[in-house]
Amino acid sequence: MQTRRQQYQALFPNEPSFRWDQIQKAVFDHRLGGWIAVSTLPSASRAKLEQNLPWMSVAAHTVLKSAHGDTVKAILELSDKKLIESVLMQNRRGQWTICVSSQVGCAMRCAFCATGTMGFIRNLTCDEIVDQYRFWNIYLQQHSFEWASHETMEVDDENEDGSPQGLPTGRKRISNIVFMGMGEPLANYDSVKEAVRTILEFTDIGPTHITVSTVGLLPQLDRLLEDRQWPHVRLAVSLHSADATTRKAIVPTSYDDFLVKLSDWSRRYLKKFDNRRHHLTFEYVLLSGVNDDEKHANKLAKFVNGIGQVKVNLIPYNTTGAQFNRSTQSAAERFVAALHAKHIIATIRKTMGDDIAAACGQLVTNQGDKEMKR
Ligand code: SAH
Fold this sequence. Notes:
Layout: H1 4-11, H2 18-27, H3 43-52, E1 58-65, E2 71-78, E3 83-90, E4 96-99, E5 103-105, E6 120-123, H4 126-142, E7 174-179, H5 189-202, E8 210-214, H6 218-226, E9 234-238, H7 244-250, H8 258-272, E10 280-286, H9 294-305, E11 310-316, H10 329-341, E12 346-348
Parallel strand pairs: 4-7, 7-8, 8-9, 9-10, 10-11, 11-12
Antiparallel strand pairs: 1-2, 2-3, 3-4, 5-6
Helix pairs in contact: 4-5, 6-8, 9-10
Bound molecules: S-adenosyl-L-homocysteine.
């Protein structure tokens, strides 16, 4: 599948390179609705682009809003009619995060995740990832939200030290992007890398506000440590258990000696990026009776403490039709207390949008015109 850039170059083989930059700037301008409005380009070029190059690579198929109003899920149609899901969420401080997909389906088949039941269909292009941002940016400007609406016209995000980053913009802005939608981002390394680089270059989102979440593909994790072009945004590794047998049972793609290798990689990562801006997170979905007792908490604590400054983000299990149950509130609290007792920074992720199947692990589409039943 050709990218926007390749399509553009085929249409305009002899244009100076600054033209591509103008095009990139224009596509990120939420006020422009198509090529004709791009006043920085000659009118003949605009007309040619309008005829030949789609302005957006994703189109709204269905948009669902959670009852609470703080989460919106879009089923987006791609140029080949395949469907992906993408999610917009607002936190209590009125900041907007988008959760983007990197693949149609996923090959990883983690036992608790709905996306895995689709299998792998195809990688998204860089444009299809970037255009999820563009889609939500336009959506945000065009819709009003009752929930925390007094906070939405807010000042820019905070810096690491908590000071405000810039002045009030008067525009609702997306402040964070998480690659936690459909797919395994590092299995689509090149497009994810290009998409992140593009977003960093053409939006006001900084590297500490983007998180790539991975099941832990070790060759790609090694690659990004050596890759000078890799944009060093935050990384989250889906650990889910520090017990090898348990992890293999719920994450079937676990490598032999995964834990030993991940521990080694994490130490190398932290050595290379020894500051809190690039901190590493381990994600851990709490499954009742599977990985949520004290024994598992202690194993996790030992594993994390053997590495160093790693945060743990516990995720309450969201129903996907798999044979798992969410840990009880008291089990989750005991688990987090056991980690805190060992001086580990651990938080429990707030569940958002589960009433519209927009929560972690619930994203799934069939490739006909109806959403798949869960
Ligand atoms: N492929 C990436 C992104 C997955 S989605 C990865 O594996 O990290 C982001 C997080 O949600 C991952 O940690 C994933 O394991 C988790 N997740 C998947 N299904 C879930 C479910 N049913 N309930 C809660 N979290 C889930």
